[in-house]
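quick one before i forget lol
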Amino acid sequence: MKRTLRVGAIIKILTDSPGKIFPLQYFCEMFDAAKSSISEDMDFAAEAIDFTGTGTIETIPGAKGGVRFMAGITDEQLKNLQEEFCSRIKDSSRILGGGFLYTSDIMFDTGLVRRIAAVFARKFRDRGADYVATVETKGIPLAAMTAHYLNLPLVVIRREAKVSEGSTVSINYFSGSYDRVQKMSISKRAVVPGSSAIIIDDFMRGGGSTKGIADILSEFDVTVAGTGIAIASKTPDKKKISDYTAILYLGEVDETARTIEILPNNQIF
């Protein structure tokens, strides 16, 4: 196989499995090539990935080392993402009443979600987390893509316990968005006690749901390594959690004037 074809195949394999370490020997055997040739191929592949700004190809030394692709996003790409995200949110037809916005089309837009997940992958890649956790809402696609980029299992916390989940642990929490007490549950088999998780969600108003996720994980002695929110409301000022990273901040939603205040977070990294 010609070098150009090998480099293309290497990029395809690595980017299909972000975070997974591949020994150089894996590619030596696949392409029937010397390790020195594969090492040179990796340099070309890394240069191509750097050019696209979609992440980096890293070399891990040691007996269990190899190479891996780590997804990411450049500062310029982040700015473009936020501008597009803000533009879509500002559409006045999204106003549903009571300060709520229709965002299902956005949170299920796989292209946009993939780019938002790349932001969280860059932000939390060095946190040493064991899981990505979310609650059973529109945030599942974003959490799933973030988990994919970080090569971590996804834990979905249920609104209601399912028979298929086996033994579960449940808690009650206060949701500021719905102004009532709600319930969430998690299977006892979902996480390993003493591990850590990154929380990902689509929207946060008062932080009750996000804190509920942290609280139910703490029942298993699982610590929170980071929290990523696609859209965080500016009000109330004092939320139930303080350490989180939002892509956008939602301000006033004026139902009479049909206007939506939405601002980018300029301090993500």
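fyi The first strand starts at residue 55 and ends at 60.
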